[in-house]
């Protein structure tokens, strides 16, 4: 019982944080899914003596309000306390319809940027609300699903489940319908209206079908032209009759077979020669036991090279970002939002899947035991997709822990899943950028689980605006802002208002990255490889830094006053 009380108090904070972040509330089932996704373990129902999630929340009357929807479904909503009323109000103002938001100008002038020397921040521009976006891996899965043939919209969910073994949970990415998801991928997917219903077609597939039709039409025309040639061939049948005359020569060749049979007679001599060959084989076998042959490593296999990082961002530039992986507000990884870099990563994943899925290539690039060592750049298959990874540590004879350079997480995988990385796949810089939230530190020395949970909710599957502050020991310190609300929400302010963080006006070196920063260990700084060009981040989002003494600075950064 003594252990249940503190556990219940922590759980109340976590549940309140999750429900506050969900504007429309959550069903008990959705709460279970959200908790599992964020905490990586199920709700501790049995540890607290409850049989169901509904029974649990009924014992949190000061945290959860149980409502009933029009169709009778139970909806759980948060009851804000004094420390969370401001956050609840911001979430309540969140825009649901993205079309209206898209009519706004892309940049909002006269917003403001904080400086370390003054409480009056300098002006900069923020971004208007934007539609939700899918992670690159999910986009790749949809494109792969449609690559073989189009699908009816009504069959898409079932086909996704059949192909990948899980339901297509598009709502967790911020979408209200499958149609909205497909519309967000209109550059690669098109919806055609047919008698059977809406047909979802991959644009590449559509283009290939048109090419095939054009080719088949050309072949049909060639066949018509070649009919005249066929008639000419009938005329030449006389020549074929002349060929029959030469059969006598073939009979003469049969006569000479006797000589060939005579050559088969001295088999005894051949058998005598085979005996010493067997002895040679035994000698070779004995030698192979003493010195096992080393598998031949392909010449294009990467052995002693590293990926390089993306070029550093300019101080105070604005950039669209997606938070890919979170350990805490002081340790997370982002992707830069730009059409160019997004497609390059997707294309890389598709090409690697295509190449390594063939058995010949899969066998050719198998890594010998001597190559499976910490620091080795290679690739690994996870759920049928191939990722560029660096071996972090060898756990045992079967398993290794790897760092995924394009997504930022560590993962334990089977050695048998590893393959040498082809030299060609070195070109694209590592896409995951190690980051810390600027100007904040945890109030308790380390971030609480509730603080981490709230930060994950704030970041989850949204395109955010990042304001670059500085780099410290290779880690990017930036402010994060969600512009999809009526009032822009700055994450450092939210953590402060919730009582989880102190805003200190300077960047405290990340304790988590200080303990382990795989990017610093395994990824070379930009420019160390001559074959890697500069990547322009957030094409429409990046902005040149502005003068600290600019006279246009008139407004404060929303919620960022020190």
UniProtKB/TrEMBL annotation:
It comes from the Eukaryota. InterPro entries: LOTUS-like, OST-HTH/LOTUS_dom, SNase_OB-fold_sf, Tudor, Tudor_domain_containing. PROSITE patterns: HTH_OST (PS51644). One of its GO terms (biological process) is cell differentiation. Residues 7-80, 130-205 form the HTH OST-type domain. Residues 211-284 have a biased composition (Acidic residues). It is found in: Cytoplasm. GO terms for cellular component: cytoplasm. Pfam families: OST-HTH, TUDOR. Residues 211-303 are annotated as: Disordered. The keyword Cell membrane does not apply. Keywords: Cytoplasm, Developmental protein, Differentiation, Repeat, Spermatogenesis. The keyword Cytoplasm applies. Belongs to the TDRD5 family. PANTHER family: TUDOR DOMAIN CONTAINING PROTEIN, TUDOR DOMAIN-CONTAINING PROTEIN 5. This is Tudor domain-containing protein 5. The gene is Tdrd5.
